[in-house]
Amino acid sequence: MSKSNYITRSGWNTLDQELKFLWKEERPKVTQAVSDAAALGDRSENAEYIYGKRRLREIDRRVRFLTKRLEVLQIVDYHPRQEGKIFFGAWVSLENENGEENQYRIVGCDEFDPAKNWISIDSPVARALIGKEVDDEVKVHTPSGLVTLFVNKIWYEK
């Protein structure tokens, strides 16, 4: 399954800021450090030079990825027509069969974060929730088996 190209505006801004930081601040600093280390002589045993070159490759790889990814990402902003139903960007309060309640936000695959309870639009739970309303019962096939969830609340960041 391929990953979707949807992202929230705040997610896009975060990736764009990372790209600008790497390109305009981090890369010039590391390039200068590598140049200074190279001027010291023998590069084969120069840890600063070897580490700096490795770090430059990491930065360049991330810059290439972010540049290509930002070109294809589609920002999805909140729209009043979304109210009352679960769509991309929604915060959802779900209750499982045991009565345990959890809150999740449906975001793009480039910004999902389990620590914040942000789940990817490509996840089985998010796919099952799209289009549902408050008080709907949702059955989701997860790796641990079939799970039933109840939608208690839906809201959006505006």
UniProtKB/TrEMBL annotation:
SUPFAM superfamilies per UniProt? FKBP-like, GreA transcript cleavage protein, N-terminal domain
**Has the keyword Zinc been applied to this entry?**
no
Q: Tell me which Gene Ontology terms the entry assigns under biological process.
A: DNA-templated transcription elongation; regulation of DNA-templated transcription elongation
Instruction: State which residue ranges cross the membrane.
Output: none
Q: Name one Pfam family in it.
A: GreA_GreB_N
The residues covered by the Transcription elongation factor GreA/GreB N-terminal domain are 5-75
| Residues annotated as domain Transcription elongation factor GreA/GreB C-terminal | 82-156
Q: Which UniProt keywords apply?
A: DNA-binding, Transcription, Transcription regulation
Chain coiled-coil ranges: none
GO MF annotations, alphabetized: DNA binding; RNA polymerase binding
Transcription regulation keyword on record: yes
HAMAP family assigned to the protein according to its UniProt record, in alphabetical order: GreA_GreB (MF_00105), GreB (MF_00930)
Q: Which family does it belong to?
A: Belongs to the GreA/GreB family. GreB subfamily.
User: What NCBIfam families does its record include?
Assistant: greB, PRK01885.1
Q: What does this protein do?
A: Necessary for efficient RNA polymerase transcription elongation past template-encoded arresting sites. The arresting sites in DNA have the property of trapping a certain fraction of elongating RNA polymerases that pass through, resulting in locked ternary complexes. Cleavage of the nascent transcript by cleavage factors such as GreA or GreB allows the resumption of elongation from the new 3'terminus. GreB releases sequences of up to 9 nucleotides in length.
PANTHER family documented for this protein: TRANSCRIPTION ELONGATION FACTOR GREA, TRANSCRIPTION ELONGATION FACTOR GREB
Q: Output this protein's name.
A: Transcription elongation factor GreB
